[in-house]
Each structure stands twice: as C-alpha cells, then as structure tokens.
Input
Amino acid sequence: MSLISLCKQLEDPRIDRKKEHSLEVIVYIALCAVICGSESWNEIERFGICKFDFFKRRFPDLVKIPNHDTFNRFFSLLKPGYFELVFRDWVSELCGKYEGVVAIDGKMLRGASKCSKDNPFGKKGFKLHMVSAWAVSNGISMGQVKVDDKSNEITAIPSLIKSLDLQDCIVTIDAIACQTDIAEVIIENNADYILALKANQKNRLMDVERWLDEMDGVDIDRPVYRSHYGKYVTEEVSHGRIETRECLVYSPGKIMESMLKDKFEGVKSIVRISTERLEVATKKLSVEKRYYITSLGLKPKEISEAIRSHWDIENRLHWQLDVSFREDAGRKVGNAAQNFSLINKIALYIIKQDETKGSVAAKRKNAGWNDEYLFKLLNKIKI
Output
C-alpha cells in the first residue's frame, strides 16, 4: 500500500464545502517539496507552482496548486495522532518485523519553542519536544510522540513503546529513562533494554561503580570469575588519536536479581564502558567511564555494539534534522509543527534510500532541480 493510499484513511479535518484540494494532493505536494528543500508553507506553494507539470502527471485532475494558507490550515487542523498512525503503518509495510536495536531519545524543536505572538510564553505546550524511536539497522524513525517538556519524556516513553512492535528488539535509552515503569513496559513488550545510569539514580550508580571498579586489574578469565564476568575490547585509530573501548559486564544471577529487580524488572547485568582516548601528537590521555543496567545476560560484544549504536539517533536523525532540514529554524507551532516534524522524517528516509554518493543537502537540491531524480527517489519506495 502506498503512502498516498494510506493518507486516504486519515480523517480529513476540513469542512466539506471548503475542500478544494484532496487530502492526498496536499500531503503529496508538501512531502515532495520538503524532499527538495522547502522549509515553509510559502516555499511549498512556490515549489508546487514551479513543478505543476510534475504533479499534473501524478494527479490528472489537478487544476491549481494549493496556496500557502491552505497548507498551513490543513496541517494545523490535522490531528497528529492520525498522521502518526498512518506513518507507523507505512513503516511496518516497508520494513516488516524489525528485531534490531531501537534507540529512543528526545529532541526539542527550538524554533517551535520560541516565544511569539502565536506561541506566548506560559502557554500550555509552549516548548515542543519530540521523542522518537529510531530503528538503527534500517535507518528509519519507527514513531514519535510529543511532550511539553523534557521531564515529561519519562511518562511519554512508555506510551511510545506500547504503540510499537518491539518484540525481540534491544531498546537503548539515555539516563532520563532509567525508571522502574520504563524497564517494566519494555519487558512486558517482550524486548530487552540497556538503560544508562547517571545522577538521577545516584545510590544505584554508586553501587554499580563500586562493584565494577573493584574488578580493575583482576583476571576475569580465571574460572572463579568466568561465569559472572565478561569483557569485550575494541581499538580504533582515526583523526590522529587512538581510542580503546572496554565493555565490562557483571552478571551475578540471583544476587543481581535480589538487589535490583525491585527497581528494574528483568535486570540481569550491569555494565561499564571505559573509553581511553590518546592524542597521538600531544600524548594526552583522557579516560571516560559510563555505567548501564541491562536485561541482557553475559553478552559483552552485543551489549557494547548496542550501546555504541545508540548514538546513531543523534548522528543520523537529530543532526540531519538540525543541519540538513534546518528544523530548529522553523517557527511553526502546535499541530503544524508536530506534523511537519513527521514530514521531515519521512523525507529524510526517502532521501537516504538513494545510495549514490552525496550529502543529504546535495541530494535535496538535486531532487529539486531534476524531475527524473525526484521520480527515482519516490520510486525506490511505495509512494
């Protein structure tokens, strides 16, 4: 089923007598315009006018391009929940059952969170945070949920997890989500978790630090330790420095369960990631230690790779939205900001399906200049 077909399942928020353009025409033109670099409703309108023949081939009954007010009004009225549901159905259709690492993290839309006449300070939802679930292997956002403040991510994450099919996935989340309810809902949904331990779990962090730091200098290959400890070490040389990463995992079985399971459902191991960076030129050495809890057992290689892949959501999603799509520069608010954020994510995924060399920004420009290339991008997926 194509995205356009799925869009027809949306509940059109407009009054019937004011529907000059169909829902699928508005959504399709907006998506194509964003793929090609448009960032505002005015730019989407101008793009549609310039590419009228392109859209006429797709929609033979098209008479004229919707104006910028029509795009703004439509996406301001469209309930984000409906649009999000369509998006998740489309992702499921494209990717099938996903069983890899799912990184969950939040991002504030800075432009949508600035004080203005339409978005006064103190208004409910003044700041707009979007929490996304990112399928690392597939490079696609599986879903998103809106929160009014970063602290509200704690209550939003469980609802996002429940809405997705995460069976047999490994869910990685930063420290703010190291909470009882979140660990429990992940286990209930037949997934595993790796949760970062930081100052928000001060007492448990101190315990975990003590347990693992006591093992420095100990030969964990000795039989007495082998059944409870595991280690995985990697070394990488790049950009004039040598980086050594050690993943130390402690899985004491029933001892761990009795000490932590009242707080974290399904916990089986605690983890320390030690990173040493040596600057070759200056010989300067820096050491960083980070701590985690996980429902995975004694699997240091799998745990290490999952933790490292968590930053994929920052590098391949949030960074691209900020730099290539200039999302933080937008001043849309309310439903329009939330819906436009989802359009950006869809456009990013479509662009990344083209494996030819070039940055996302360069491919967006090429799509705007070259109709054949835009057709190529759209034809790579069901749209």
About this structure: The mean pLDDT is 85. The chain is about 45% helix and 20% strand. The first strand starts at residue 101 and ends at 108. The CA atoms of residues 211 and 250 lie 9 Å apart.
